[in-house]
Amino acid sequence: MEAPAGLRLALVFAVLVHFSLLPTSHSLSSQDLQIVSAERRIDLTSHITRVYLTLKVENTGTSPPASEILLAFPPTEVDHIALLKAAVAVGKKKKKSYLPLDVKPSEGPEAPNETKFFSVLLLNPLSVGESLTLEVLYVLTHSLEPFPLEISQSEPQLVYYHDSAILLSPYHIKQQITVIKTPSTKVESFSRVEPTDHAGTELKYGPYEDRSPYSFSPIIVHFENNNPFAVVEELVREVEISHWGSLQITEHYKLVHAGAQHKGVFSRVEYQSRPSLSGVSSFKNLIARLPPRVHSVYYRDEIGNISSSHLRKDSRKSELEIEPRYPLFGGWKATFVIGYGLPLQDFLFESSDGRRYLNFTFGCPLAETVVDKLTIKVVLPEGSKNPFAIVPFPVEQSLEVSYYGIPLLSSAETLTSYSYLDVVGRTVVVLEKKNVVPEHNSPFQVYYNFNPIFMLAEPLMLASVFFFLFVACVAYLHIDLSIRK
User: Fold this and answer.
1) How far apart are CA 376 and CA 429, in angstroms?
2) Rg, C-alpha atoms of the chain
């Protein structure tokens, strides 16, 4: 299939960018390891790219047992990695299970043109003559680029994805294949690195035999993808804990359609009369997956409450379908707030050492959405002490203290918030993370110490206010303020 002139130029550019990653005369390997077989499956069915990699690794050298396996990435791809997980297969067939492994960035050996490495730490060193099967998942964001950059209301959205037909690795690979899955059969063009096969929604590159370390063969796939490119530029989730039985969640969204920019004039008549042809790459609703037993749900923007939302609940989950005031085309933005309440007993527990802890879900409740910057603020009850968070991946904590809404720099890892009837203020644990994907929606915990005496502070304050008001009224009625004798 012949590529158009613009795509040929893009392919030439990709070749120039990655040319120096081709094998050199001194191919390097960190250890005497080789990959017996490599199968890579790249899922491009949404705007979030997911790569599933299965590696059978064998130690064929005479050096000491290998304690780690290196994964290599081009420097242009590392910036788009939102998540990288690895597991080792244990057992056979029906009894097979997967044990998670630690993955961390690594300097790795000397490699051509700034190749980046991640180290997978093995549970048991791989001795000479032994082999293992490694399962790797990594998720890429903002890796699909619109081509063309601007489209009209009646045009479909075309994007291109560039990668390598050959897996970049510091090890010799005996056999490998790469399978790319697209959202539909509408593929405009693709690079050919024989053997290459295109059938339905799948592109297959390979099998390739006996590839030396750091082999690289750039490819570009140009295809139609009309799925919502929903990107939350900034999300602030406020989780307020009240020991009187309530958990209040408030989420502030700045949403954008990150696909091809809309050009021309928007026609509402055409959009509604030809929904299957007009604005096929736009989206007018999103699904927010909320915890079960949710209540007091509201959805509003700067103008006010938005009634075009639907809540579906059952004993296991709740789904909120939200519709912005207007459909979102490429480059269009929307700002809104979602709030809801939850029963406290479902999320607040007490540990064996007497600490209380919140067990909540990290990430964004909107389905298939990328969050460029996520901030979670856990507002603890007044009087909470020594808070700390346990999150299954690296996050940042803010270093500021706020008094009555005025933030001040501090070396503490918490800030203080004041609400109604507070005296000493509430501790707020702030967690920040960039480049968040749905795979980050996993539980995290916030532990803290709490003295139950503080639960009496607000009732005593209210009782004191009414008591002094009553005393003042009685005194006023019994005091004679006249000037006559």
Assistant:
1) 8
2) 29
pLDDT at residue 22 greater than cutoff 60: no
CA–CA separation, 428 vs 412, rounded Å?
Answer: 11
**What global pTM score does this model have?**
0.83
Q: Which residues contact 44 (CB under 8 A, 6 or more apart)?
A: 144, 161, 180, 181, 182, 183, 221, 223, 225
Please tell me the distance from the alpha carbon of residue 30 to that of residue 35, in angstroms, as a whole number.
13
CA dihedral for 119, 120, 123, 126, sign (positive or negative): negative
Q: How is the chain split into domains, by residue range?
A: 33-224, 230-403+419-460
pLDDT per position as a tens digit, 421-480: 455 567 888 999 999 999 999 999 999 988 776 555 666 666 777 778 888 888 878 777
The pLDDT tens digits of the residues spanning 370-387 come to 999 999 999 888 878 888
In words, the CATH class of domain 230-403+419-460 is: mainly beta
Q: Are 33-224 and 230-403+419-460 equal in CATH topology?
A: yes
C-alpha distances in Å from residue 266, one per residue of 151, 261, 483: 12, 12, 78
Q: Give me the sign of the Cα torsion angle 348, 344, 437, 303.
A: negative
For position 29, what pLDDT does the model report?
A: 44
33-224 has which fold?
Answer: Immunoglobulin-like (2.60.40)
Distance CA 257, CA 293 (A): 31
CB 51 within 8 A of CB 44: no
Of residues 332 and 427, the one with the higher pLDDT is: 332
Structure token digits, residue 94: 């029906």
Residue 311 token pair: 């809540």
Closest by Cα among 199, 189, 192, 264 to 2: 189
* C-alpha angle 111-114-115 in degrees, rounded to nearest 5: 65
Task: Name, in order, each residue with C-beta under 8 angstroms of 251's C-beta and a sequence gap of 6 or more.
Answer: 235, 236, 237, 238, 337, 338, 339, 365
In angstroms, rounded to a whole number, what is the distance separating the alpha carbons of residues 195 and 166?
12
Chain-centre distance of CA 338, in angstroms? 19
Write the DSSP string, 380-426.
Answer: PPTT-EEEEEE-SS--EE--EEEETTEEEE-SSSEEEE--TT-SS-E
Residues whose CB falls within 8 Å of the CB of residue 204, separated by 6 or more in sequence, listed in order: 177, 178, 179, 180, 196, 197, 198
Angle at CA of residue 326, ends 322 and 329, nearest 5°: 105
Residue 187: which pLDDT band, with cuts at 50, 70 and 90?
very high
Tokens 């540990």 belong to 351
